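Lab notes, practical 5.
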Amino acid sequence: MKFSLTLIFAFLMIFLSSCNSTSPNNMEQKVINLNIKTGDKNKNLIIESLLKNEQKFTINFQNENAYFLENNVLNSRLNYFCKGFINDQRDILEKIIFKNKNFNDKKVLVVYLKENENLANELKEKYPSEDYYLINEVNFETQIKTLLDIDASFSRFLTLSKLDNNIQISHTPRIKNNIASIYFLMDYENGKTIMPIFRSYAFDIDFYSSSEIFHDALDFKKLIDFEKTYIPFTKSMIETIANENNSILQEKIILALINDYVEIEKIYQHNLFRKNYKPKSGNNIVRRNNCIDRDLNLWQISSDNFNQT
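Output from the prediction step:
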């Protein structure tokens, strides 16, 4: 029943779109013809994207030989892109954190949950000399203090303070000094609790994560728990999803990715390469017959602003 309703809705919107005036926000108002195989949710998102941009279109979801868009848009390789969005993020993080590590005498600390164990194991195979910690979803603070050697720091302080009770000694807990950076592999629900605890002790250490850490947040204001964390993300994507309402950030990101796909499809169909279009999810211009490497840069989450770094 849902499939039928989607088709009816699509054909109705084709007619309505053809009646709309040209939108100044689009590169050019040309009819785009789409042949796609995908799930119902993505069908609705594709139509939503087309309508939002007042795009004239025809669409066919029933062609068995059409381009197949996986239901998991975040992890799938959208047509014309070299890799999936999350894979692009992980690649740039791996390059910066592990391959271009600034402190060879220190170790990267990878902190992960059970559901991210496969990714952690892949990294462990490539970079076995780094440190990896599977954090249990019980009593985060105790685990983190032990991991960072905070208890030992307090013990040293207590020993010193007992030497002379008349002397007041101020104490800021020191973490072990062999940590180059911390890479977090976890979801929003756990990350919003775990990362502030780490930050309260490791305030001079660089934190990294993919955007998966905040996918389930309602808006950017919820990201204060991830203050100063580096995420591979574009300024255009930030601006795009910041203006969307009524859904979690993950849904806004998915819609932005589908918008990218639709715009690039139009470029190929109507030879609009001279427009030098840059997708919202990447930093490279669309080139004919070249898959698009998003070439992501790092954005540092800040409560003051959302500037690129």
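Observations recorded by the TA: The longest strand covers residues 179-185. The mean pLDDT is 84.
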